[in-house]
Amino acid sequence: GMPSIGIYSYELFKFYDVENIIRIGSAGAMTAKLKLRDVVAAQAACTNSNYIAQFGMPGTFAPIADFELLETAVAIAREKGVRMPVGNVLSSDNFYDASGKTMDWAKMGVLCAEMESAALYANAAYLGKRALSLLTISDSIDNLVTGKELSPADRQTTFTQMMEIALGVAVAMDKKAN
Question: Which of 51, 64, 65, 73 is 20 to 30 Å from the Cα of 127, by its Cα?
């Protein structure tokens, strides 16, 4: 979740001089427009977490992806013929929603829920670095949208499109840097 990626990304950015972090992971669909194994690029990340309060902003900070990383990922997905919706995601502190309110985010156009992107994007912004989250839909967040989910074996073996796009972005950024 956010505390863990907060530590890892901060240390990589601050102490190891990493410039770009591309997170890959799973997410739960919050719209029937997303199907199992769809790849989503997180353009921005809403959150129900208090993680961003540590930065002491006088308002609400909206964590977003680095545009160059995002634009490169979109281009690579197109080249590969991969349908990759781009939009807002929910970075939640909760894996299981006892409140029953998680689906309210879908009313605001949030595509899916995961647990890390907002903290990653906030750390990147704070430290002047770049970040992107690419997500593969593994299930619907409440099993009411589609009622479908991937098996654990499928989660381990079928997320290759997301990985190929992420690796393509990393290679493209390395070429630009050299």
Answer: 73
